[in-house]
Amino acid sequence: MSDLIDAIAKLHRDHRIPHIIVTSVRFEPNSPVISVVGSSSRTDGSPRLFKVDVPALDCFFSGTGDMFAALTVVRLREAVSEKELLRTTSWRSPDGVDALDLPLARATEKVLGSMHKILEKTKLARDLEVEKMSGPQGALEKDSEKRLHLKKTKAAEVRLVRNLPDLIEPDVRFRAQALSKTME
After folding, report:
1. Neighbours of 87 (CB within 10 A)
2. Which of 19, 102, 142, 159 is deepest in the core (most CB within 10 A)?
3. How far from 34 is each of 22, 46, 112, CA to CA, in Å?
4. Are 174 and 52 in contact (CB under 8 A)?
5. pTM for this one?
6. Buried/exposed code over 38-68 (b: 16+ C-beta within 10 A; e: otherwise)
């Protein structure tokens, strides 16, 4: 973890990147938890680090990075607006704001609330679809490997439109936790 924290600090300090989010972090191999680590810098470039842990889902989903990025832009703007920071340079919070109170931390919690709920529902629908594919006399096993992969991929397409309420009103189940610059 210290390498990640050092990299975030370097991006803030040397490259003056005000807001950073690193997704899909696993601190232990085969961990059942995926973390998102974020930070918004202070005016001196020092980081205000936080992480949000979410249970990993045993399924591959295509497009989740794009979904995360799009939702983060919307939710960050919303959180910045609530804190009346839209007219500040880089939407940077005052230096005294704690990592857990940063608009980026609040936005990340909402984004992960929406995404996790939608991906859980997508996985349930995918599992039902794959079960139906098996059909009579093991039809799924008779399919070519390529066709089988395509069917499973199609079944795992993220179901955004069907879950619009989860985008609009996210269930914030996962909360940011502060990270120390020296945490190992």
Report:
1. 7
2. 102
3. 11, 25, 11
4. yes
5. 0.85
6. bbbbbeebebbbbbbbbeeeeeebeebeebb
